[in-house]
Every structure is written in C-alpha cells, then in structure tokens.
Amino acid sequence: MKIPIFDLILICLGLIFGTYAIFIDQNHRISTNFAGMLSFVLSIWLCISCIKSFKEKKES
C-alpha cells in the first residue's frame, strides 16, 4: 500500500497543528481552537479518502 508523499505530509502537518492548537497553545482563543479542530477533521477526512481509494484499487 503506497500513500503519496504529499498526502502523508498534509496528514502529519494537520494532526501536528491540530494537537498544538487545541492542547498546547496557552492563548485558548476561539479562532485557534476552531483552526485546530478543522485541521483534525481535514486530516481524518484525507486519511479516509486515501483508504477508500486504495480499497477501490484493490477491488478492481
């Protein structure tokens, strides 16, 4: 199973930024928390789409 390097980088950066914005950043601003949650959601969505595309390739 090969994941394109660009997708892997985006997933890792999204999860890292989401973790920092929600748990580590001491400002606790609403915009920072919202950006962190959005980053998590987009990273998970990208993971799911990569997994679905690999399943479709294997079935074909």
What does this structure look like?
With 60 residues, this protein is an all-alpha fold. It has one domain (5-57). The chain contains 2 helices and no strands. Helix 1 runs antiparallel to helix 2. The longest helix is centred in the C-terminal third of the chain and has 30 residues, at 30-59. The radius of gyration is 14 Å and the shape is elongated. The model has no long low-confidence stretch (mean pLDDT 82). Keywords: Membrane, Transmembrane, Transmembrane helix. The chain crosses the membrane at residues 5-24, 30-51.
Q: How many domain regions? A: 1
Low-confidence stretches: none
Taken in chain order, the helices and strands follow as: HH
Evaluate the radius of gyration: 14 Å
- Overall pLDDT metric: 82
Strand content: under 5%
Largest sheet: none
SS-derived structural category: mainly alpha
Helix content: over 70%
Spatial gap, N to C terminus: 15 Å
Number of strands: 0
Helix-strand blueprint:
Blueprint: H1 5-24, H2 30-59
Helix pairs in contact: 1-2
Key structural traits:
transmembrane helix; 60 residues; membrane; mainly alpha; transmembrane; elongated
In short:
With 60 residues, the chain is mainly α.
